[in-house]
Amino acid sequence: MNFKQKATLALAVIALTASNLVAAQTTLLNVSYDVAREFYKDINTAFIANYKKTTGKDIKIDQAHAGSSAQARAVNDGLEADVVTFNTSTDVDFLASTGVVAKDWTKKFANNAAPTSSTMLFLVRNGNPKGIKDWDDLVKPGVQVIVVNPKTGGNGRMAYLAAWGQVRKKGGTDAQAQEFVSKLYKNVPVLAKGGRDATTIFLQRNIGDVLITFESEVVSVDKEFGAGKVDAIHPSSSIVAENPVAVVERTVAKKGTAEQAKAYLNFLYSDEGQEIAAQHAIRPTNAAILKKYGNVFKPISLFRAEDYFGSFAEAQKVHFNDGGQFDKLYTVK
Fold first, then answer.
1. CATH assignment at residue 307
2. Which of 149, 170, 189, 190 has the most beta carbons within 10 angstroms of its beta carbon?
3. What is the pLDDT of residues 86-124, one digit of tens each?
4. How many domains is the chain built from?
5. What is the pLDDT at residue 231?
């Protein structure tokens, strides 16, 4: 074998080794809701280091974000997510109904497969020029409210249910809640597609006086737009918004990534994962870590969807399916 042949063979061996190394590195795709980008960037960095330390193997995590319901439809239509991390259980239930995730997905991980939660609050412009303090201020004349379309994003569904439920919590009837929510949406100049789109409308397009969004968006806004652009207003009551997770059985069966996908979602329950959640103003389920971040999570009277709507599935059917309560009270502008 001459020198040229030896060199060619050596290059072929190097190329084969490189290709085997690439093949050996597992890549997971986490398909998630709109305002969780920064949170999962930090989770992914921590998980990759943890996975390497505990298994000796490399792993890569890709992430995709949009309105939660739009993401659920994309996964159902073939987007090869290994895991989904959403902000309402109805989006995971939809994937369970079509066989994309396990029917008993809520039993696969602790706390009904919800490692974290959030709630809805108000972001107002610095100094709170309209003096917004609670829900009743949102239906006053001249107040423009920015909110996500509940048909496309869990953020929007949670805002709607929070607005409806707070009337019930004060002793109001469903008829009074409907009247309040109708007034609220009359003050909505444009519906956003997802949580990040809503923030962009509010801060970049400078539309609206108040943004109803997840508690965690305060941290994201400060990081992206600079501290001092908005004030966070905690209303007297709001809804518990659990963040459910699931392995996408269809994808992991095809790719052979079930073990890695499960490890990734379990990491969200670890002390490190829960600390990262708290740092992003996402409420951890770990009581000790939640207490540690008491300065972040202000006292607020919380209620659950089950208290006034039966379940999220029932709320979906009554309020958000085509022809439901939302369609009756809101006319697209």
1. 3.40.190.10
2. 149
3. 999 999 999 999 999 999 999 999 999 999 999 999 999
4. 2
5. 93
What's the rounded mean pLDDT across residues 292-306? 92
Give the structural domain span for 148: 118-241+300-329
Whether residues 18 and 105 fall in one domain: yes
Q: Supply 200's token pair.
A: 């962009």
Is 289 inside a domain boundary?
no
Residue 93 lies in a domain: yes
- Calculated CA dihedral for residues 37, 39, 41, 43, nearest 10 degrees: -140
User: What pLDDT does 2 receive?
Assistant: 58
Domain match, 226 and 154 both: yes
Positive/negative CA dihedral, 4, 6, 7, 9:
positive
**Which string of b and e fits 101-114 if b means at least 16 CB within 10 Å?**
bbeebbebbeeebb
Q: What one-character-per-residue DSSP string does 98-150 give?
A: TTSS-TTGGGSSHHHH-SEEEEEEEEEETT-TT---SGGGGGSTT--EEEE-T
pTM of the model: 0.84
